[in-house]
């Protein structure tokens, strides 16, 4: 009976993985505040369900369903559409949400001009939020929309976004980016936009004063972000959006120019794909190292190397394919590097892909002429992509007593000097001894005469 239960659980896990567009899972908890009608976000939620996600809705103050129970996450992804909520259930407090990232749970957060716990949480991700009730406004270009509803042209080429998207309609609050290297800028504010507590041009005086003072008082220009991602060290992803209206059906159907709808519908699916680890997801399948031209079994990897040995290092890398929903070998990394380190890198070399073998990267190098405990280190970090890290420790030892060459070609002058000295000594000793014998015979002949 127990065997049948285990088999059934394994089958269910395989079925769930097969239906997941995300590399981490298909379950999504949507925290939706009561003031928001989920029917107004049907385009966004419908796109998620079409890709195989299972959406579960919950209010911010509801006690169930729990996001995490007994330190085990119940959902693979979380969407927090509660920009104005000021109190949350215990499992949705800021510290609890940060803890989810350590369990590889992805999250999408939306902000508003109101001061909420999510505003404080944003600072944990190195996002600097302007004072409350200071929305982003722009009077350019001239349009029929309010100044707080801004069309933003997305980057023409961005690894996360679809190419050549129409302008994105945005309404909400901007944020300044800190120096955290894990931040991934996705959409920035227009150059002519600024954050102020007024929709009219009277706010320009505040901008002038802020510019004279310098510092964080100046909330203007393209240095501000409106949609920013965060790639955690363990692989989990968080997405911060300055306004929930970006996901609304109203913005998705609004025309930004005659006959051209906004790019919000496609844009929201693009950023959700990234946040839920559908796109730009890599992993290291295996790594191995061995002496050149020597094949070792997986259980018989060299435990040490000798100085000046020729070493071959090999790694296999895969990329998640959301269409086939499986990991596929990936050879598209052109700037992968390998470091052979002992405190500091002694060798840093390119780790190129091997032609004809998808997903295989290999390099051969000579071990340094220095013994110690070294590491093979692969540390690949690029904005938007999964961080790849691998470290294997291996000692490098001096040659054994019988491992040194007996004769060195560079030492022949010394060999010749030692041999000539020895030969000279023998000849001198022989002549010296022979000379004494001849003199004794000569003196003996003289005595006989």
What ranges have pLDDT less than 50 throughout 5 or more consecutive residues? Answer: 1-17, 213-217
CATH topology of the largest domain: Rossmann fold
Say what oligomer this is: single chain
Number of helices: 8
Strands, count: 26
Q: What integer value in Å does the Rg equal?
A: 35 Å
Describe the global form.
elongated
Tally of discrete structural domains: 3
Average per-residue pLDDT, rounded, comes to 88
Question: What is the CATH architecture assignment of the largest domain?
Answer: 3-Layer(aba) Sandwich
Distance between the termini: 126 Å
Note the main sheet: 9 strands, mixed
Which CATH C-level class of the largest domain is it? Alpha Beta
| Percent helix | 10-25%
Q: What structural category do the secondary elements indicate?
A: alpha+beta
Strand content: 25-35%
Pfam family, one: OST48_N
Domain OST48 middle: 298-434
Subcellular location: Endoplasmic reticulum membrane; Membrane
Keywords: Endoplasmic reticulum, Membrane, Signal, Transferase, Transmembrane, Transmembrane helix
């Amino acid at each position: 009976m127990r065997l049948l239960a285990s088999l059934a659980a394994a089958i269910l896990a395989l079925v769930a993985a097969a239906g997941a567009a995300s590399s981490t899972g298909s379950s999504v908890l949507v925290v939706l505040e009561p003031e928001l009608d989920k029917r107004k976000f049907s385009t966004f939620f419908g796109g998620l369900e079409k890709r195989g996600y299972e959406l579960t809705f919950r209010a911010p103050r509801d006690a169930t369903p729990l996001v995490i129970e007994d330190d085990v996450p119940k959902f693979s992804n979380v969407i927090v559409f509660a920009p104005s909520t000021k109190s949350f259930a215990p499992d949705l407090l800021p510290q609890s949400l940060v803890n989810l990232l350590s369990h590889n749970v992805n999250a999408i957060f939306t902000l508003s001009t109101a001061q909420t716990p999510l505003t404080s949480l944003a600072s944990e991700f190195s996002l600097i939020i302007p004072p409350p009730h200071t929305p982003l406004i722009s009077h350019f270009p001239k349009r029929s929309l309010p100044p707080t509803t801004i069309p933003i042209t997305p980057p023409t080429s961005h690894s996360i976004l679809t190419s050549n998207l129409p302008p994105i309609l945005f309404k909400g609050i901007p944020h300044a980016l800190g120096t955290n290297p894990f931040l991934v800028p996705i959409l920035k504010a227009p150059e002519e936009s600024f954050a102020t507590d007024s929709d009219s041009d009277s706010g320009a005086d505040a901008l002038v004063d802020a510019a004279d003072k310098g510092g964080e008082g100046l909330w203007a220009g393209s240095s501000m972000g409106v949609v920013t991602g965060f790639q955690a060290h363990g692989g989990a992803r968080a997405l911060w959006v300055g306004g929930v209206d970006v996901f609304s059906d109203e913005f998705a159907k609004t025309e930004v120019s005659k006959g051209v709808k906004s790019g919000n519908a496609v844009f929201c699916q693009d950023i959700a794909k990234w946040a839920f680890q559908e796109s730009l997801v890599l992993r290291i399948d295996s790594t191995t190292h061995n002496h050149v031209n020597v094949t070792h079994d997986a259980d018989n990897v060299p435990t040490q190397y000798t100085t000046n040995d020729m070493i071959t290092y090999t790694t296999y890398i895969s990329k998640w394919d959301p269409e086939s929903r499986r990991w596929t070998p990936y050879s598209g990394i052109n700037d992968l590097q390998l470091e052979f380190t002992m405190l500091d890198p002694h060798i840093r070399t390119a780790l190129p892909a091997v032609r004809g073998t998808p997903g295989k990267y290999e390099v051969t190098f000579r071990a340094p002429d220095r013994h110690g405990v070294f590491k093979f280190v692969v540390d690949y970090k690029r904005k938007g992509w999964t961080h790849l890290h691998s470290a294997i420790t291996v000692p490098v030892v001096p040659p054994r007593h019988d491992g040194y060459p007996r004769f060195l070609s560079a030492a022949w002058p010394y060999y010749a000097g030692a041999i000539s000295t020895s030969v000279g000594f023998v000849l001198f000793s022989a002549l010296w001894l022979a000379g004494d014998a001849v003199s004794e015979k000569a003196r003996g002949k003289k005595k006989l005469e």
